[in-house]
Amino acid sequence: MTLTEHPARESKKPRRKRLLVVAALVLATLAGYAVWTNVVPYTLSASIEIDATPDEVWAVLADLDAYDEWNPFIVASSGTVAAGATLTNTMRDATGETTFTPTVLAATPGRELRWLGKLGPGGVFDGEHAFLIDQVRPGRVRLVQTERFSGVLVPFFRGQLHDNTLPQFGAMNEALAQRVDRG
């Protein structure tokens, strides 16, 4: 009986095992990154105090059809301001206009409007936008506009979000305050 050695076959096993280990490490790293970008969101926030009642601020905020008359940030909006409804919003910032279709998460008159917009499937680039109305004293409210961005692409756009989107929050808040004053 003759025994024949096959050194080429034996050397493929350790190489294949190394490739599997490297692939597993890459996948684990990507999975960890995906989890991290969704657990640690990037948040933008701008607030303003307005001489108005919560209902007066809500009336302007919830009148989507009039956004094109006063809003420099969300220049067009349509849909129903109700939890579960889908809105169609056109947003303008320094990079141009973008239309998106967020789902309303909360619509509490005089208190809160909140929606969730997604670019692609969830976890890629999600933005939970909120307008919170808090009465500071009778006849004066604080409007806080925030957005929590999460998803695997968000870290690559943090600078753009800060430089291009955050100023639009302030511009919208100011314009909303002027619109309430005009009544």
TrEMBL record:
<dbReference type="InterPro" id="IPR023393">
    <property type="entry name" value="START-like_dom_sf"/>
</dbReference>
<protein>
    <recommendedName>
        <fullName>Polyketide cyclase / dehydrase and lipid transport</fullName>
    </recommendedName>
</protein>
<dbReference type="Pfam" id="PF10604">
    <property type="entry name" value="Polyketide_cyc2"/>
</dbReference>
<dbReference type="InterPro" id="IPR019587">
    <property type="entry name" value="Polyketide_cyclase/dehydratase"/>
</dbReference>
